[in-house]
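Whiteboard transcription, Tuesday session. T.W. wrote the C-alpha coordinates on the left side:
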Protein backbone atom coordinates (compact mmCIF):
# COMPACT_ATOMS: atom_id res chain seq x y z
CA UNK A 1 0.00 0.00 0.00
CA UNK A 2 1.32 3.43 -0.92
CA UNK A 3 2.44 5.50 2.04
CA UNK A 4 2.18 9.21 1.44
CA UNK A 5 4.77 11.46 3.05
CA UNK A 6 4.78 15.20 3.59
CA UNK A 7 8.22 16.17 4.92
CA UNK A 8 8.63 19.73 6.13
CA UNK A 9 9.64 22.10 3.36
CA UNK A 10 11.91 24.90 4.70
CA UNK A 11 10.87 27.13 1.80
CA UNK A 12 7.35 27.20 3.27
CA UNK A 13 8.57 29.20 6.28
CA UNK A 14 6.65 32.51 6.53
CA UNK A 15 8.72 35.31 5.02
CA UNK A 16 8.41 39.04 4.31
CA UNK A 17 5.81 39.46 7.03
CA UNK A 18 4.49 42.97 7.59
CA UNK A 19 3.40 42.82 11.22
CA UNK A 20 5.58 40.09 12.73
CA UNK A 21 9.31 39.35 12.63
CA UNK A 22 9.87 35.60 12.40
CA UNK A 23 13.30 33.99 12.51
CA UNK A 24 15.05 30.82 13.64
CA UNK A 25 18.37 30.36 15.39
CA UNK A 26 19.40 26.77 15.96
CA UNK A 27 16.45 24.97 17.50
CA UNK A 28 14.74 28.18 18.66
CA UNK A 29 12.10 30.12 16.72
CA UNK A 30 11.62 33.81 17.52
CA UNK A 31 8.22 35.46 17.05
CA UNK A 32 8.33 39.24 17.52
CA UNK A 33 5.13 41.25 17.25
CA UNK A 34 6.20 44.26 15.20
CA UNK A 35 3.61 47.04 15.28
CA UNK A 36 5.31 49.44 17.71
CA UNK A 37 3.38 52.43 16.34
CA UNK A 38 0.24 50.99 18.00
CA UNK A 39 2.00 49.32 20.94
CA UNK A 40 1.88 46.00 19.08
CA UNK A 41 -1.93 45.95 19.05
CA UNK A 42 -3.24 43.22 16.78
CA UNK A 43 -5.71 43.27 13.89
CA UNK A 44 -6.98 40.69 11.39
CA UNK A 45 -3.81 40.75 9.29
CA UNK A 46 -1.48 40.44 12.29
CA UNK A 47 -3.60 37.52 13.52
CA UNK A 48 -3.10 35.81 10.18
CA UNK A 49 0.68 36.27 10.29
CA UNK A 50 0.92 35.00 13.86
CA UNK A 51 -1.08 31.89 12.97
CA UNK A 52 1.33 31.24 10.09
CA UNK A 53 4.25 31.40 12.54
CA UNK A 54 2.65 29.06 15.07
CA UNK A 55 1.85 26.63 12.28
CA UNK A 56 5.45 26.70 11.02
CA UNK A 57 6.81 26.10 14.53
CA UNK A 58 4.50 23.13 14.77
CA UNK A 59 5.61 21.66 11.44
CA UNK A 60 9.38 22.25 11.52
CA UNK A 61 11.02 19.25 13.26
CA UNK A 62 14.18 21.29 13.90
CA UNK A 63 12.31 23.81 16.06
CA UNK A 64 12.21 22.63 19.68
CA UNK A 65 10.97 25.81 21.36
CA UNK A 66 9.66 29.29 20.52
CA UNK A 67 10.24 32.69 22.14
CA UNK A 68 7.53 35.34 21.80
CA UNK A 69 8.19 39.02 22.41
CA UNK A 70 7.34 42.49 21.12
CA UNK A 71 9.09 45.41 19.45
CA UNK A 72 9.37 48.64 21.41
CA UNK A 73 7.93 49.43 24.86
CA UNK A 74 4.99 46.96 24.77
CA UNK A 75 4.62 43.21 24.49
CA UNK A 76 1.10 43.53 23.05
CA UNK A 77 -1.62 46.11 23.71
CA UNK A 78 -4.33 43.61 22.80
CA UNK A 79 -6.71 44.05 19.93
CA UNK A 80 -6.34 47.07 17.67
CA UNK A 81 -9.55 48.78 18.80
CA UNK A 82 -9.15 51.72 16.42
CA UNK A 83 -9.00 49.26 13.50
CA UNK A 84 -12.19 47.69 14.87
CA UNK A 85 -13.91 51.08 15.25
CA UNK A 86 -13.14 52.03 11.64
CA UNK A 87 -14.93 48.93 10.36
CA UNK A 88 -17.84 49.39 12.75
CA UNK A 89 -18.26 53.00 11.60
CA UNK A 90 -18.87 51.64 8.08
CA UNK A 91 -21.29 49.03 9.37
CA UNK A 92 -18.85 46.24 8.54
CA UNK A 93 -17.20 43.38 10.39
CA UNK A 94 -13.44 43.19 10.55
CA UNK A 95 -12.04 40.54 8.14
CA UNK A 96 -11.46 37.86 10.77
CA UNK A 97 -15.05 38.33 12.03
CA UNK A 98 -16.62 38.31 8.57
CA UNK A 99 -17.76 34.83 7.41
CA UNK A 100 -17.33 36.00 3.79
CA UNK A 101 -13.65 36.82 4.27
CA UNK A 102 -10.84 34.30 3.67
CA UNK A 103 -9.39 35.58 6.97
CA UNK A 104 -12.50 34.56 8.92
CA UNK A 105 -11.53 33.00 12.26
CA UNK A 106 -13.90 34.26 14.96
CA UNK A 107 -12.20 34.49 18.31
CA UNK A 108 -8.85 33.55 16.80
CA UNK A 109 -6.58 36.34 17.97
CA UNK A 110 -3.45 34.90 16.42
CA UNK A 111 -2.97 32.68 19.45
CA UNK A 112 -0.92 29.46 19.64
CA UNK A 113 -4.08 27.53 20.49
CA UNK A 114 -5.52 28.53 17.09
CA UNK A 115 -3.32 25.81 15.56
CA UNK A 116 -3.23 23.53 18.64
CA UNK A 117 0.52 24.12 18.97
CA UNK A 118 2.19 21.33 20.92
CA UNK A 119 5.70 22.73 21.32
CA UNK A 120 6.86 24.84 24.27
CA UNK A 121 6.74 28.62 24.14
CA UNK A 122 8.46 31.22 26.30
CA UNK A 123 6.94 34.69 26.67
CA UNK A 124 9.55 37.42 26.90
CA UNK A 125 7.36 40.19 28.29
CA UNK A 126 9.35 43.28 27.36
CA UNK A 127 6.41 45.53 28.28
CA UNK A 128 2.72 45.47 29.13
CA UNK A 129 0.49 42.62 27.92
CA UNK A 130 -3.21 43.42 27.64
CA UNK A 131 -6.27 41.55 26.34
CA UNK A 132 -5.32 39.12 23.61
CA UNK A 133 -1.69 39.96 24.40
CA UNK A 134 -2.23 38.50 27.86
CA UNK A 135 -3.99 35.49 26.36
CA UNK A 136 -0.95 34.83 24.17
CA UNK A 137 1.38 35.16 27.16
CA UNK A 138 -0.74 32.76 29.22
CA UNK A 139 -0.51 30.17 26.45
CA UNK A 140 3.27 30.21 26.85
CA UNK A 141 4.47 27.66 29.37
CA UNK A 142 7.32 29.83 30.66
CA UNK A 143 7.34 33.61 31.14
CA UNK A 144 10.03 36.20 31.76
CA UNK A 145 8.94 39.75 32.58
CA UNK A 146 10.60 43.15 32.54
CA UNK A 147 10.64 44.99 35.86
CA UNK A 148 8.40 47.78 34.55
CA UNK A 149 5.96 45.56 32.64
CA UNK A 150 2.39 44.83 33.71
CA UNK A 151 -0.57 42.69 32.65
CA UNK A 152 -4.28 43.46 32.27
CA UNK A 153 -7.44 42.29 30.53
CA UNK A 154 -9.39 45.46 29.59
CA UNK A 155 -11.99 43.69 27.40
CA UNK A 156 -14.99 44.94 29.37
CA UNK A 157 -13.61 48.49 29.15
CA UNK A 158 -14.37 48.44 25.42
CA UNK A 159 -17.61 46.46 25.56
CA UNK A 160 -16.12 43.10 24.65
CA UNK A 161 -15.93 39.73 26.37
CA UNK A 162 -12.71 38.09 25.18
CA UNK A 163 -11.95 34.76 26.84
CA UNK A 164 -12.41 35.25 30.60
CA UNK A 165 -12.82 31.51 31.15
CA UNK A 166 -9.25 30.98 29.94
CA UNK A 167 -7.90 33.53 32.42
CA UNK A 168 -10.08 32.05 35.17
CA UNK A 169 -8.41 28.71 34.61
CA UNK A 170 -4.84 29.90 34.02
CA UNK A 171 -4.64 32.37 36.93
CA UNK A 172 -5.65 32.41 40.59
CA UNK A 173 -9.40 32.96 40.38
CA UNK A 174 -9.50 36.17 42.39
CA UNK A 175 -6.69 37.51 40.21
CA UNK A 176 -8.57 36.62 37.04
CA UNK A 177 -11.71 38.29 38.38
CA UNK A 178 -9.76 41.41 39.34
CA UNK A 179 -8.25 41.69 35.86
CA UNK A 180 -11.51 41.04 33.99
CA UNK A 181 -14.24 42.54 36.17
CA UNK A 182 -12.29 45.48 37.60
CA UNK A 183 -9.99 46.01 34.60
CA UNK A 184 -7.17 45.91 37.11
CA UNK A 185 -3.44 45.66 36.50
CA UNK A 186 -0.71 43.52 37.99
CA UNK A 187 2.90 44.67 38.01
CA UNK A 188 5.91 42.44 37.53
CA UNK A 189 6.57 41.83 41.22
CA UNK A 190 2.93 40.91 41.83
CA UNK A 191 3.08 38.51 38.88
CA UNK A 192 6.20 36.89 40.32
CA UNK A 193 4.63 36.57 43.78
CA UNK A 194 1.61 34.82 42.26
CA UNK A 195 3.78 32.53 40.07
CA UNK A 196 2.31 34.02 36.89
CA UNK A 197 5.86 34.54 35.63
CA UNK A 198 9.05 32.57 36.29
CA UNK A 199 11.45 35.47 36.45
CA UNK A 200 11.54 39.28 36.61
CA UNK A 201 14.61 40.99 35.15
CA UNK A 202 15.70 44.41 33.92
CA UNK A 203 14.17 45.30 30.57
CA UNK A 204 17.41 44.83 28.63
CA UNK A 205 17.79 41.29 29.97
CA UNK A 206 14.33 39.93 29.10
CA UNK A 207 15.30 38.23 25.85
CA UNK A 208 18.54 36.75 27.21
CA UNK A 209 16.66 35.35 30.22
CA UNK A 210 14.14 33.75 27.86
CA UNK A 211 17.02 32.30 25.84
CA UNK A 212 18.43 30.70 29.00
CA UNK A 213 15.15 28.82 29.44
CA UNK A 214 15.21 27.87 25.75
CA UNK A 215 18.71 26.40 26.12
CA UNK A 216 17.52 24.29 29.05
CA UNK A 217 14.56 23.01 27.05
CA UNK A 218 16.76 22.11 24.08
CA UNK A 219 18.86 19.83 26.31
CA UNK A 220 15.88 17.56 26.87
CA UNK A 221 14.36 15.00 24.51
CA UNK A 222 12.24 16.92 21.97
CA UNK A 223 9.73 14.06 21.83
CA UNK A 224 9.40 13.94 25.62
CA UNK A 225 9.07 17.73 25.84
CA UNK A 226 6.39 17.76 23.16
CA UNK A 227 4.62 14.92 24.96
CA UNK A 228 4.59 17.03 28.12
CA UNK A 229 3.11 19.98 26.24
CA UNK A 230 0.44 17.72 24.75
CA UNK A 231 -0.53 16.57 28.25
CA UNK A 232 -0.50 20.15 29.53
CA UNK A 233 -2.94 21.09 26.78
CA UNK A 234 -5.23 18.14 27.43
CA UNK A 235 -5.24 18.86 31.16
CA UNK A 236 -6.29 22.46 30.55
CA UNK A 237 -8.71 21.75 27.70
CA UNK A 238 -12.33 22.89 28.01
CA UNK A 239 -15.31 20.72 27.04
CA UNK A 240 -16.39 21.44 23.42
CA UNK A 241 -19.76 22.67 24.68
CA UNK A 242 -18.11 25.35 26.83
CA UNK A 243 -15.75 26.43 24.04
CA UNK A 244 -18.66 26.70 21.62
CA UNK A 245 -20.80 28.67 24.07
CA UNK A 246 -17.94 31.01 24.95
CA UNK A 247 -17.44 31.81 21.27
CA UNK A 248 -21.18 32.34 20.79
CA UNK A 249 -21.38 34.65 23.81
CA UNK A 250 -18.31 36.59 22.69
CA UNK A 251 -19.88 37.22 19.28
CA UNK A 252 -23.28 38.03 20.75
CA UNK A 253 -21.83 40.69 23.07
CA UNK A 254 -19.44 42.03 20.43
CA UNK A 255 -22.31 42.83 18.05
CA UNK A 256 -24.44 44.77 20.54
CA UNK A 257 -24.76 48.57 20.58
CA UNK A 258 -22.47 48.60 23.62
CA UNK A 259 -19.90 46.58 21.69
CA UNK A 260 -19.79 49.33 19.07
CA UNK A 261 -19.87 52.09 21.71
CA UNK A 262 -16.83 50.69 23.52
CA UNK A 263 -14.66 50.79 20.41
CA UNK A 264 -16.03 54.18 19.38
CA UNK A 265 -15.32 55.69 22.81
CA UNK A 266 -11.80 54.27 22.80
CA UNK A 267 -11.07 55.85 19.44
CA UNK A 268 -12.56 59.18 20.56
CA UNK A 269 -10.67 59.06 23.88
CA UNK A 270 -13.75 59.46 26.08
CA UNK A 271 -15.66 57.41 28.62
CA UNK A 272 -18.17 55.04 27.03
CA UNK A 273 -21.90 55.52 27.58
CA UNK A 274 -23.40 52.09 28.13
CA UNK A 275 -27.04 51.49 27.18
CA UNK A 276 -27.24 47.72 27.90
CA UNK A 277 -28.34 47.13 24.31
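and on the right, the sequence the group agreed on:
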Amino acid sequence: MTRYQSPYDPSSMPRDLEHVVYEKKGHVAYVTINRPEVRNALHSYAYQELRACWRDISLDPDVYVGIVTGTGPAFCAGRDVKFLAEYQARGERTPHEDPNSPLFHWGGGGQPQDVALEKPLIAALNGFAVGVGLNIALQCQLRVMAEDAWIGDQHTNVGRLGAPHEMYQALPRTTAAYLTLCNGRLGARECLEQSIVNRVVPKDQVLSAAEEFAEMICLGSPLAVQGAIRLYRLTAEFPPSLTSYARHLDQQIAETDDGAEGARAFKEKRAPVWTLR
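Someone added at the bottom: Residues 44-59 form the longest helix (16 residues).
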